[in-house]
Each structure stands twice: as structure tokens, then as C-alpha cells.
Amino acid sequence: MALNYGALTALTRDKYVPKLVDNFFKSTPLLAMLRDRQKEWNGGPAIVEPLIHGELSGGTSFSGYDTVTYPQTTPITAAKFDPKFLVQPVIIADTEVEQNTGPEQVLSLLEAKMEIARLTLSKLFSSQLYADGTGNSGKDITGLGAVLSASSTYGGIAVADMPTWAAQVNALSPAQPLTTSLMRKMFLDCSDGNDKPDVIITTKALWNRYAELAEGRITVTSSVGEKLASLGFQVLEFMGVPVVHDADCPAGYMYFLNTKYLQLRVSPRMNFTATKWHRADNMIADKCEILWGGNLTCSQRRRQGLITGLDESGY
Questions:
Q1: Which are the contacts of 101, defined by CB distance < 8 A and separation ≥ 6?
Q2: Cβ(292)–Cβ(271) under 8 Å?
Q3: Is residue 58 part of a domain?
Q4: Does the residue 65 lie in any domain?
Q5: Is the peptide bond before 174 cis (omega within 30 degrees of 0)?
Q6: Is 30 contained in some domain?
Q7: CA dist 9 to 24, 71, 112, 209, Å?
Q8: Cα(293)–Cα(238) distance, rounded to whole angstroms?
């Protein structure tokens, strides 16, 4: 049974890709938080992210006819990030078509293939979001591993050149058990008034440890926490901020993220875009590809925090 490429392409783009994207952003807490933090990147060799650092100078009190001068300094610069590209093929072998004869069975096969593609792409994307972008010869997404550093160059800007361009990092050595004191200090280090982390992400073991520390004293009241809970994630709260666990979070890590300053910069032409179905070159099969282009960017590293070296033994 020959596949109708035009019908499959239309069905993939109109029905299955929107469903894939919706379930993709519901697959992990971090992806759920970043869904509303997407901005278009309209092409070019670099993704430019304007940064706010420091404060305006020149503000002062005055009286009567005082002479007032206004220094021409603005604490805004720009970080530059390389665009990264992901591809997830969807392949239907001729033998699979023969084993699933009839339009309804072929559609069921396509639906199963798209679900497998979604699961695979979610895992690939999520694991790269926690890494530093150096994987696969630097082709991977520039993730939290690059953002959460107190010393490394990020977005082309060195911490030595802009001291405020450093994240809050507490690397425990030797490993220590999680305490609310450690969490409170990091939370406050990342905060400035009401500008504070809006989600805390950690491993399942450390989430269990925090659940024991706060047993019987937690009620989820924040809108973000309620939203994550409605998506099926297990949610606790600390300082009014949701605490969730993510399977892709590195062992011994706890992230304090202010997602207001984290953006998924995406290409409108490669934002989970499906290519046309076509004949595969190197196999007896038909395929299409799901494409994504962009990168994760951060405009305020100092509002992001990370504790490493937390002891997970016993959990």
C-alpha cells in the first residue's frame, strides 16, 4: 500500500504536531515553566539577548535652581548565543505498512510513531537543557550547565568584565545533607525584594528529603505550584515557591530558577516544524523530520542559583 505523501504531510502538520508540542511541554517541570518564556529569533548568525545589569546613575535630590547633570551610562549590554538545531525523524518502513494494511491501521501506526517521536524528542531536549552546550561538538543546546556558573564566560561575556554576570553557586565539598538553612540562604542570595526564584527543581531523592524536612507544614498556594500540580507533577513549596523533581536533574543538584530571565529563543520557521513526507535515501521506508532551531538564553544570571554536592544517600 503506497502512502499518500500529501495527505500524511497535512495530517502530521495539522493534527499530530500540535498534539506533540502540547504534550512535549507537559513532559517535565522545566519545559512546562519555559513554555510561556518563548521569544522568536528571526535568523542571523547569533541570538542576541539584551541584558540589564546594575542601575542607572544620575538620580539625586535637588533644590531650587540646582544644576543637575545626567551621566550618559545605561546598564544594558547584550549577550550573544549561537543558534542550535535539533531534528527528530519519524520513519515508517514499507514492511510496517504491509503489516498495517488499510487507512485506519496506517493512521494508528502514524499516531504511535508520533508519540514515540515526542517521547524521544522530550528526553533529548530536556537532557540538553541541564547540560552546558558542549555536547556533540558544541551542537547541543546551551543549557543550565552554562548558565549556572559563578566564573565562566557565558553569552560571550566574561564574569571578570561584568561582575554581576555570575550566578549564585554553592558547591558543597564534601557532600552534605540537604537542610532548609542551605535552601533559605540560596533563595535569599538569588532574591532582590519581590524579584525571587519562581521554581526550585531537584532530583527525586532530594525532593523526598525536603518532603521529610517539611512534613505536615506545606500547603501549595502559589499559582505556579497549582499550575504544575494540575499538569500531574508532584509539588511541594518553599518560601511560597514550588519545589518539583525532574528525572533529568543531575544527582546532588538543586536549582533555584527565576524563569522571568530564562527564555527559549526559537526560530518561527523551525519551531517543531514538520518537513514533508518523503522517501528515505538509505532505507526502504518513508520519513519526515521534526525540526527545532533556537537556544536557551538568560538575561540575568545573578538571579539564578544552584546548590551542588547534596548527599542523596538513603533516599
A1: 1
A2: yes
A3: no
A4: no
A5: yes
A6: yes
A7: 20, 58, 16, 48
A8: 35
Closest CA to 37 of 264, 241, 297: 264
Please report, for the domain that includes residue 268, its CATH number: 3.90.1690
Full residue range of the structural domain in which residue 274 is found: 5-53+79-310
Burial of 136 (0-12, 13-18, 19+ CB in 10 A): exposed
- Euclidean distance between CA atoms 264 and 92, whole angstroms: 31
Q: To which H or E segment does residue 39 belong?
A: strand 38-40
**Number of folded domains in the chain?**
1
116 within some domain: yes
pLDDT in tens, the chain (315 residues): 567 889 889 999 999 999 999 999 999 999 999 999 999 998 889 999 888 655 556 677 788 887 777 665 555 588 999 999 999 999 999 999 888 877 788 889 999 999 999 999 999 999 999 999 999 999 999 999 999 999 999 999 999 988 889 999 999 999 999 999 999 999 999 999 999 999 999 999 999 999 999 886 677 888 999 999 999 999 999 999 999 999 999 999 999 999 999 999 999 999 999 999 999 998 999 999 999 999 999 999 999 999 999 999 988
Q: Which grid cell is 229?
A: 500540580
